[in-house]
Amino acid sequence: MDETAETDEIRGTAQGTAPVPLSVLDLVTVGAGRTATDALRTSVEIARLAESRGFHRYWVAEHHSMPGVASSSPAVILAHLAAHTDRIRLGSGGVMLPNHAPLVIAEQFGTLEAMAPRRIDLGLGRAPGTDGATAAALRRTQRTVEGADDFPEQLAELTRFLDDDFPDGHPYARIHAVPGPVQATSPGGVQSSHRPPVWLLGSSGFSARLAGVLGLPFAFAHHFSAQNTIPALDLYRESFRPSAVLDAPYALIGVSALAADEEKEARRQVLAAALSMVRLRTGRPGLVPTPEEAEAYEFSPMEREFVGSWNANVIHGTADEVRAGLDDLQKRTGADELMITGNAHGGDVRLRSYELIADAYGLPGERTAQA
Q: How far does the chain reach from its first CA to its final CA, in angstroms?
């Protein structure tokens, strides 16, 4: 593997006045009155905008059985985005490894690498990305906890498939993930031996420590586990051992942020997204409601407390307010990269948010035409 090339693919370069590289995490949210087709079209628009404005990477996250989140198949979405972009890095934030056979993931991301050479990231998580019953349906087993416990072994198997280096005598030594490195060593082979860099994702200390021990880049879900951010990043840095991939720790954090032309509008949009989370956390997942529905909704005292706690970790307001909030968060955490997720009912609102954030930091380029 080309160590320099992979290191460059992991570390981004800050653009404009941003303190660190900025990236995008897309949940492909579906608002009430909108379709999954609408949401996926918005994803293309945002990816094009992100590419034109100097965002470093664009990730999509695996979720299941959630009407308001249309990202159940990251590899399929990434293939679609690869066809509509030219330079920006694309990846999973993440693929939930316990839900899939490692060989399948190696094949999917080998295919993506062939479609978009040196632009693909493979971010892996150990949670199911859904409830226990859905996880059981995905895995065809009732033992859903087992998958998380076996994560290090699954990761090692996946890495072997990606590198095509099972030792002689291993049951899988004659099995190859295609497209993949085996094609470069076959007679007449001209396939690149490069494969997507692996990231570990987490919302607690388990993956932070594992990423550090293995010398892998680490992505922390600050957007829904803010109380664990600094402890997890500290653990990652303390556990880090230099590897062929990285000579020093590299950590990004997922950040929920939404900018609007007026502070009041940002508050309205964030309230609607919070109502969606209230319903999800109470077993009533649905489409993302409109701001009007959220304003008319009668929150119970417990729900209102949840909304207050949830929105305290959502950086929102005008572009200048969001920029200040992102700058402060980066200083407090020492994150090497900020991956912004902007959840709202309408795709136009999300698109405008990323545009405003790019403008606030003086990122290069101009907004592209809509897809």
A: 36
Report H helices in the chain.
3-10, 36-52, 74-84, 102-115, 132-139, 144-149, 151-163, 182-185, 205-214, 229-239, 263-281, 291-296, 301-311, 319-333, 347-360
Q: How far is 47 from 259, CA to CA, in rounded Å?
A: 17
Percentages of the chain per state (helix, strand, coil), in multiples of 5: 45, 15, 40
Structure tokens at 10: 């992991």
Query: Is residue 22 classed as helix, strand or coil in its secondary structure?
Result: strand
Q: How many CB atoms lie within 10 A of CB 163?
A: 15
SS3 58: strand
Within a 13 Å sphere around the CA of 162, how many CA atoms are in the beta-carbon half? 22
Question: Strand, helix or coil at 346?
Answer: coil
Q: Please count the residues of the chain.
A: 371
Q: Which residues contact 147 (CB under 8 A, 6 or more apart)?
A: 97, 98, 99, 126, 128, 135, 139, 154
For residue 288, what is the DSSP state?
B
Q: What are the mean pLDDT values of the chain's consecutive 10-residue runs (371 residues total)?
A: 57 97 97 97 98 98 94 97 98 94 97 96 85 75 60 96 96 95 87 89 94 98 94 98 96 98 97 96 94 97 96 97 98 98 96 98 72 38
Distance CA(245)–CA(240), nearest Å, equals 12
Cα–Cα distance measured from residue 19 to residue 90, given in angstroms and rounded to the nearest whole number: 22
